[in-house]
């Protein structure tokens, strides 16, 4: 019988903790605070700013395999969204994180300064927050990149159902449950699920302080409609939320945002930036450098 913390600290995840520790050790930490949230930011690198926003039940660790490559030519700012990771949401009843995009925009101005163009990329639920943040920052946001967005009229449900894991106290059983859940939702290939992915999923979901609820689709599309800078979308080809309908997703996006660019990553699921990190990093660098 192990506690959840003992599982995370087990020898099995030593290499995962070491990989994370290297990236964490290179970060500079900042905090922004307002009436809605206390937000922890991590920053790597120097150059044009790129802000990365994680998905629901996540943390900065959603971007573990992308930070260092992007930081070779950019300053990379990665907050934990309020209610996740190290950030605090003042009102736990705010399950749609209404107003958090504004808190992020104001916090970024406070800690990074009010000048210079930036790019923002959001993943999954974070695409909605990214759109709100971009709307608040206006013309300063040159590029808005939406990774696995799913605020679309046609809904696709994953075929595999996640397993309950909170009562599990055996490490092998926990790993089996987490692998199942990652295969059900996040990955195209179960063979790509490594110990770091399992560790990140365990840590992120266990320490999530709120159960998010998606806001109305109209809020997302209204934020995009006001954009003056570029919009791009990236999907994994095997993303369970979009499987079989990606051409229609792209048509709907371009119907609403005619200049939007789109890219599909082969052999990738919902967590495309982890499962096919090299392909994703190349595409994202092109989008934020203006070469795509």
From TrEMBL:
Domain of life according to the entry: Bacteria
Residue ranges of every copy of the AB hydrolase-1 domain listed in the record: 50-277
Signal peptide (from-to): none
GO cellular component, one term: membrane
InterPro entries (UniProt xref): AB_hydrolase_1 (IPR000073), AB_hydrolase_fold (IPR029058), AB_hydrolase_sf (IPR050266)
SUPFAM superfamilies per record: alpha/beta-Hydrolases
Gene3D superfamilies, A to Z: alpha/beta hydrolase
Protein name stated in the entry: Pimeloyl-ACP methyl ester carboxylesterase
Organism: Methylovirgula ligni
């Amino acid at each position: 019988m192990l506690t959840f913390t003992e599982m995370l600290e087990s020898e099995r995840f030593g290499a995962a903790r070491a990989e994370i520790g290297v990236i964490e050790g290179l970060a500079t930490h900042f905090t922004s605070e307002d009436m809605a949230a206390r937000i922890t930011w991590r920053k790597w690198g120097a150059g044009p700013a790129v802000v990365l926003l994680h998905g629901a039940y996540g943390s900065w660790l959603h971007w573990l395999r992308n930070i260092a490559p992007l930081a070779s030519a950019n300053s990379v700012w990665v907050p934990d969204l309020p209610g996740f990771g190290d950030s605090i949401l003042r009102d736990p009843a705010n399950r749609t994180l209404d107003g958090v995009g504004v808190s992020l925009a104001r916090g970024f101005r406070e800690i990074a300064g009010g000048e210079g163009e930036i790019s923002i990329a959001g993943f999954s639920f974070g695409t909605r927050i990214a759109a709100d943040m971009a709307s608040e920052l206006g013309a300063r946001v040159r590029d808005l990149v939406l990774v696995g967005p799913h605020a679309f009229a046609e809904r696709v449900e994953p075929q595999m159902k996640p397993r309950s894991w909170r009562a599990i106290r055996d490490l092998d059983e926990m790993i089996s449950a987490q692998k199942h859940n990652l295969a059900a939702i996040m990955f195209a290939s179960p063979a790509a699920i490594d110990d770091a992915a399992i560790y990140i999923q365990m840590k992120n979901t266990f320490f999530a302080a709120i159960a998010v609820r998606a806001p109305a689709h109209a809020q997302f599309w209204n934020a995009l409609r006001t954009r003056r800078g570029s919009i791009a979308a990236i999907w994994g080809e095997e993303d369970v939320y979009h499987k079989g309908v990606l051409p229609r997703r792209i048509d709907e996006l371009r119907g609403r945002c005619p200049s939007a660019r789109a890219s599909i990553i082969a052999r990738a699921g919902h967590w495309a930036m982890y499962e096919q990190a090299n392909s994703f990093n190349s595409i994202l660098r092109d989008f934020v450098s203006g070469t795509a």
